[in-house]
Design brief:
This protein has one helix and eight strands; from the N terminus they run αββββββββ. It is mainly beta. It has an eight-stranded antiparallel beta barrel with strand order 1-2-3-4-5-6-7-8.
Length: 141
């Protein structure tokens, strides 16, 4: 009985704390599966944002966002905010956008925790089934 209560309390505390997405996450290259960047997710004015803190591949060091639009055009990719304006709704962060710094394209986005160290990030155009999902892993200290 004590084990059951412990498990229940752990599950409840995880479910009731959806802001656990905040922190440092490691992205993967879709093709090579190599770790590509570190993204810091943080809240500002009740919305979730994500900034590329560091590029991890040697060949990406110092790259500029040549395809980006607006203020981010030709700025270093490290330092660009790629996740913008997500709002928490029923344990899913949604309603904002994610930008692919390689192409400069901006997509609708939602993300949610699969477990405390695994984040499902979905970028799409219009309908969520017209997109792609990435799995980000929480950076371990």
């Amino acid at each position: 009985m004590i084990q059951f209560c412990t498990i229940l309390i752990t599950l409840f505390s995880f479910i009731s704390q959806p802001t656990l997405v905040e922190g440092l996450w490691v992205t993967q290259d879709d093709e090579t599966k190599k770790e590509k960047s570190e993204v810091l997710l943080y809240q500002k004015d009740g919305k979730l944002y994500g900034k590329i803190i560091r590029l991890l591949l040697a060949e990406d060091q110092g790259k500029l966002c040549k395809e980006c639009k607006g203020d981010e055009k030709n700025k270093p990719i490290a330092g660009i905010t790629i996740v913008k304006d997500l709002i928490l709704d029923d344990n899913v962060w949604e309603g904002g956008t994610i930008m692919d710094p390689k192409s400069g394209k901006v997509y609708d986005c939602y993300l949610n925790l699969e477990d405390p160290n695994t984040l499902k990030v979905r970028g799409f155009l219009g309908f969520s089934f017209l997109g792609r999902t990435q799995i980000w892993k929480r950076k371990q200290e």
